[in-house]
Amino acid sequence: MYSFILILLIIPLINDSPEGIYEMMWILYLLPPILVLFYHGYKTGILTGLFCVLLQSSYELHEYFLHPEEYSFNNFNVTFAIAIAITTVTLSIGFLMRHREKKQIELEKLSQDLEFLANHDTLTALPNRRAFEQRMDEALQEAKDTDRMFALIFCDLDQFKNLNDTAGHRIGDLVLFEIAQRVKQIIRGEDFISRLGGDEFIIFLDGVSSPEEVTNITQAILSTIEQPIILDTLEYKISASLGIALYPQDSIDPSMLLQHADIAMYQSKARGNGNYTFFTPEMGKALLRQTRLASGLKSALARNEFTVVYQPLCDAKTGEVTSAEALIRWNHSKMGLIPPNEFIPIAEETRIIIPIGEWVLRSAVQEAKRWHDAGHMIIVAVNISCIQLEECHCYQKIQQILAETGLEPQFLELEITERVALSNPEEMIRILNNLRSIGIKIAIDDFGTGYSSLSYLKKYPVHTIKIDRSFIQDIAFEVRDRAMLKALLIMAKSLNFSTVAEGVETPEQFSILSDMGCNVVQGFLLSTPLSGEEFFNFITNRRMEEGQLLSSLG
User: Fold this and answer.
1) Where are the alpha helices (DSSP H) in 272-393?
2) How far from the centroid of its chain's Cα atoms is residue 109's Cα?
3) pLDDT per position as a tens digit, 91-134
4) Helices (DSSP H) in 479-528: which residue ranges?
5) What is the pLDDT of residues 207-245, one digit of tens each?
6) Are 350 and 317 in contact, with CB atoms under 8 Å apart?
7) H or E stretch including 241?
8) CA 278/CA 253 separation, integer angstroms
């Protein structure tokens, strides 16, 4: 703009003839479109410059043809050409400078956007793991300098996978966003919440004065998460399990603090939904043990550290041994005997349960065939996990094992828990129907301790329900326990199920169960779990005693 004004001032000086006024009029005539060009960019500037040159050329030609003898190319041509050239160049430079400034602004905004994406979760806009780790490093340095405490709260939403599966991922995402906003409003200004991924969040409480203050904030977080969420006119209720680790009590290492908070969270989940737990050193020892067990499980089969034992099940009326439950035992080479309830969950989580379960099934079926060959037609019951059942070739593998050993399918019973039965109902029903179609029996283990949903019993091809020991242990002196047991037995009989009472340990329990009509009993009163050879001797001796009793009566 300033360059153009300078041109207007210079032109009269270039040509001080009377024609200079005429030239100035031309420049003023072109001033409005040039000013417009200044604000409309480079391409428009070039086109208008060409237009001006053509306009002047047409004027010159017009004058030349009308008065060729009088016309002469004067200073006006040069002056106007210079004006057009300088104006066009000035406009172009101005446009390029503005274009450069615009691009610089765009690049700065793009850089800011990339920086935000690198440090924030795209769904909730919360800081991500990278931002959390940076904040942790800063907090550790500040804490060392000021000798103050801070807390990490590991938050995992309960049963979130079920919500995603039933309501859909869109609803799941909206729930995650809502939870994030709620927690942001609860925590203090100096705190922050980060999403680590999935339904896992980490909450950083800076400068806390005591564990009691952490407890108050944690309870407020749980309370706000548990408030119903209304989406598409439907109400969703969510709970969370929280694990807490404190600096510097639990660790001064950031990765260990996060790991300790994670461990404490799993302890909360074990206690049930909607709980919080502070990390303790004992939890760290438990994690170390679990790590060692997970490592040992990978080679336990190759090292022949597993054995199978068999616990007898007897008819509640006659005392005759009708079946045996196959139970796995692990004798670790360095840690000794490991209880099944400790290593089975680890085996399921790592999916090592698939080869281990197949080995147990094969061992039990082979042992049962030995009993049959000796004349003892005993049913063998084997526990099978959800992971095994969902494994692609489970049905074919079971058929193959039966064919290889020669055991007839009706002498194999597969025990599943209620949790397994309801994990994927449609698929489980299909798989179990296939197994039942070839004669294999299906039993529900630990009945009454899981979901206890009676609706699934009419859909599943169940042959037997095994009543959990918690319903048995107090029936000798608790009226309500006897009433509940009686109701279970009546229901099972009406549905044509065979019933097994687990954990029978006293003659009183045995007598009550027999009088109530329970079909089969199992427990230490009859026998502890036995090795294959011991079980064979047990049923052989019991058969001899029954024969001697019948002979004496005869």
Assistant:
1) 281-300, 340-349, 353-373, 386-390
2) 34
3) 556 656 666 677 677 667 666 666 666 777 888 888 888 888 88
4) 479-494, 507-516
5) 888 999 999 999 999 999 999 999 888 889 899 999 999
6) no
7) strand 240-247
8) 17
Look at the chain and count its residues.
554
**Closest C-alpha among 217, 245, 237, 363 to residue 301:** 363
The sign of the torsion formed by the CA atoms of 365, 371, 373, 379 equals: negative
Q: Which two tokens stand for residue 125?
A: 């806009």
Place of tokens 């966003």: 177
- Cβ burial 410-445 (10 Å sphere, 16+ → b, else e): ebbbbbbbbebbbbeeeebeebbeebbeeebbbbbb
362 CB contacts (<8 Å, ≥6 apart)? 401, 405
Nearest one of 441, 498, 503, 429 to 471, comparing CA atoms: 503
DSSP state, residue 147: T
In angstroms, the CA 539 to CA 545 distance is 10
3-state secondary structure at position 124:
coil
Give the three-state DSSP class for 196: strand
pTM of the full structure: 0.62
User: DSSP H helical segments within 350-441, as ranges?
Assistant: 353-373, 386-390, 394-405, 418-423, 425-437
Contact 224, 193 (CB under 8 A): no
- Rounded to 10 degrees, the C-alpha dihedral 367/372/377/383 comes to 20
Phi and psi of 220, rounded to 5°?
-65, -40
Closest to 168 in 3D by CA, of 232, 225, 241:
232
- Measured in whole angstroms, the distance separating CA 310 from the mean position of its chain's CA atoms is 37
How distant, in Å, are the alpha carbons of 106, 274, 452 from that of 492? 73, 34, 13
**Judging by DSSP bridges, how do beta strands 520-522 and 498-501 pair with one another?**
parallel
Euclidean distance between CA atoms 266 and 271, whole angstroms = 9
Question: Do 300 and 317 contact (CB within 8 A), yes or no?
Answer: no
As a whole number of angstroms, the distance between CA 522 and CA 197 comes to 46
Location of structure tokens 């349960």: 353
- The C-alpha atoms of residue 517 and residue 507 are separated, in whole angstroms, by 16
User: Residue 197: what pLDDT?
Assistant: 83
Taking a C-beta distance cutoff of 8 angstroms, is the pair 203, 264 a contact?
no
**Cα(108)–Cα(254) distance, integer angstroms:** 33
Q: Phi and psi (nearest 5°) for 76?
A: -60, -40
